[in-house]
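Students often ask what a holo structure prediction actually looks like on paper. The answer is less mysterious than it sounds. You provide the chain, you provide the ligand, and the output is a string of discrete structure tokens encoding the 3D arrangement of the protein together with heme C.
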Amino acid sequence: MRYLPLPRRAVPVVAVATIIVLAWLGWGSIRHPEALWAPGDVSRYHADVARCVDCHEPFQGPSPAKCLVCHSEKRFASRSKPAVRDFHREVIAQQRTCLACHTEHRGALAQITTNAMFNPHGEFIFRATGTSSCRACHEFGPDVVARPTLLDNEVVRQLFEEGEGAHHRGRMANCLQCHVAGQMEIEDHEQEK
Ligand code: HEC
Ligand code: HEC
Ligand code: HEC
Ligand code: HEC
Ligand code: HEC
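The corresponding structure tokens follow.
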């Protein structure tokens, strides 16, 4: 006699239940794969343009080779800033994984670049100085992830002067630390020290 872990009469019931669950999963996977399988919503950058299989090898993880189908060297060359283009050309040549710096499924509005150059000044920087680009004061080297260098130009010199002694080199990047809530004038000079 074969060993059955279930009473003989339960076997057809279990078999039917299994088939129903599999059918439901299969149908759901085709209709709404994200609801069943994805760990979170795909970002707004990809939600409308990429299907699961555009980024994932079936039964494996996301694959950089698949990212490159859309984000080819050519595409970087035609639409990215020179620093970003050169940087990614090297990443591609060295076959480094995109996933070291980019993620997905963090929600529609999430940033998908992790090690991105971050902006320590907030939107305040543009309002306070009348500039509109990081490049008004910085130069970004070929290594996109590294810190930008500060230019020595009129805008930057003026910014140092406007601090009335409070804008110290090497200690002023976090504007909002003193310009609390984005205010321009600082009554209480306590915070300078
Ligand atoms: C634009 C590319 C992209 C699309 C489209 C995409 N994914 Fe992903 N997915 C990723 C990346 C990248 C990760 C790894 C996230 C991380 O580790 O930060 C991931 C992770 C996952 C994971 C976690 C397990 C693993 O393999 O790392 C699952 C499950 C998953 N995706 C399912 C889906 C499903 C289902 C869809 C379709 C609705 C989908 N994904 C669409 C890029 C994508
Ligand atoms: C089906 C094509 C397609 C695939 C596959 C794809 N992308 Fe995209 N991706 C796009 C489009 C379209 C945009 C919108 C911006 C653009 O046109 O470059 C975008 C935008 C991005 C951005 C820019 C986000 C920003 O902050 O501006 C990053 C980073 C990115 N993708 C990384 C990836 C990674 C990593 C993968 C592989 C896991 C991947 N993409 C797979 C089409 C694709
Ligand atoms: C070492 C980190 C790193 C790796 C690895 C990396 N990226 Fe990026 N990527 C970045 C950073 C940082 C930016 C944002 C640059 C900026 O906005 O100035 C970026 C921007 C992008 C963009 C937007 C381009 C644009 O024109 O603004 C796309 C698309 C992208 N990456 C795709 C990829 C793909 C595909 C791979 C894998 C072949 C990859 N990245 C590997 C760090 C990385
Ligand atoms: C009006 C000039 C100006 C603009 C515009 C500007 N910055 Fe800065 N940035 C500065 C100054 C000044 C410092 C501080 C230098 C110091 O402390 O010696 C700085 C420092 C930094 C640092 C180094 C932070 C640290 O902790 O050392 C980074 C990163 C940075 N900026 C990124 C950005 C980015 C990204 C943008 C655009 C969103 C931007 N900056 C726009 C003036 C500017
Ligand atoms: C250590 C504290 C501190 C930091 C950090 C700091 N500031 Fe200031 N800032 C001051 C003080 C103090 C003044 C002069 C008092 C005043 O004008 O009310 C000032 C004045 C200014 C003024 C002139 C305002 C006016 O109405 O004349 C501007 C513009 C300015 N800061 C922008 C910035 C920017 C942009 C950053 C970041 C890159 C920054 N500050 C970082 C303390 C700071």
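The CA atoms of residues 166 and 192 lie 5 Å apart.
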